[in-house]
Design a protein that fits this description.
By secondary structure, the protein is α+β, with helices and mostly antiparallel strands. Helices cover about 40% and strands about 20% of the residues. It has an eight-stranded mixed beta sheet with strand order 1-5-6-11-10-9-7-8. The chain has a five-stranded mixed beta sheet with strand order 13-12-14-15-16, with helices on both faces. Strands 2-4-3 form a three-stranded antiparallel beta sheet. It is elongated, with a radius of gyration of 28 Å.
Length: about 425
Amino acid sequence: MEKIMKPRGTMDIMAPDVYTWNYIEKTVRDVAARFGFSEVRVPTFEEIGLFRRGVGESTDVVQKEMYTFTDKDGTMYALRPEGTASVARAIIENGKATDTLPLKYFYVINCFRYEKPEAGRSREFVQFGTEMFGAPGSAADFTIISLGSTVIQELGITNVKLHINSIGCPNCRPVYREKLKEYLRENKDKLCDTCIGRMETNPLRVLDCKNEPCKEVAENAPRTIDHLCPECAEHLATLREQLDSAGIEYVIDPHIVRGLDYYTRTVFEFIAEGIGAQSTVCGGGRYDGLMEELGGPKMAGIGFGMGITRLILAMNQCGVTIENPNLPKLYIASMGQTAANRALTIVNDLRKNGIVADCDVMSRSLKAQMKYADKIGAKYVLMLGDNEIETGKATIKEMATSEQTEISLDEIAAFITK
């Protein structure tokens, strides 16, 4: 019978890889909690209008990459391609917009985009995201960037640089867009077909194109930071002072524009060296008009998304490896059915007391049990047979040193946790 394979662009995550995934998820949760962020969980699919309005009708995400389906009642839904729009919708729908500001949320969610799978890019991916609403000042930008920087540092990633830019606000961006369109029209013959299509509807995306001819055009394009209104310029200047004061290194990168329509003012990316084309491990920025666009109150917002697979690529590049954190403290090697039954009882009691322990469930020989104990990384092995049950004492062996000690069966937990 033909095997059924996983869908293209998806992943099976199993040991030992899952140890790294768990470590990253624990780290991001710990850091988010230190920064005062609460977890939010949102649906895997939403009405398609949420992303059309929130992410932007002209974006690649909405036009090309969303997984959509029609429900039995005729409603059009989409698997979430990102988390920000869903969190904003959840805040509005659940009446959280009137809570004490700022609102600070984080999430670890699966997202879905129909893209060409490659290293660091898949069609189903896991994203750690943060969202802060209600804080319009640069201190919020600093806090979000600092949170991302802290996660990266605590994961042992050292090959990452912070790139920041400002793409202006509704007051100054229209003037810039017209100058950019004029420049792009003059260089239309050098652009790829995709960018020619973007040129009128979403010209900033041309600056983010990875095709070499388009990158050459972008190099000499007008820069957003040269066309900021006084308020946007002051916002960026203050953020730079705050980053400088905290010792967070960065570079001003006029090509950072991000691909979603809701971004305003600050945009940023943490870019890793040496992990391939998909080198942005964290990207985000400010989206001060999103809440209103989705029918909520006027409320500033800022956040980021951090791809777990790209973090793993960066960790691998830096030589960071995560071992199994739950190796057995004890393996009981039994001889005979009576001992095997007693081993099950002892192991069950140890597990209830928070101790990782194991014993034979395969009716292996004693020699095979010892090999298995070594293979699973047990710290101690206890030999248990009829004689040990009768005397109430057994020999326990420390696998790393081969040191053997006779202990009472009633003192196993105390011995292995000392």
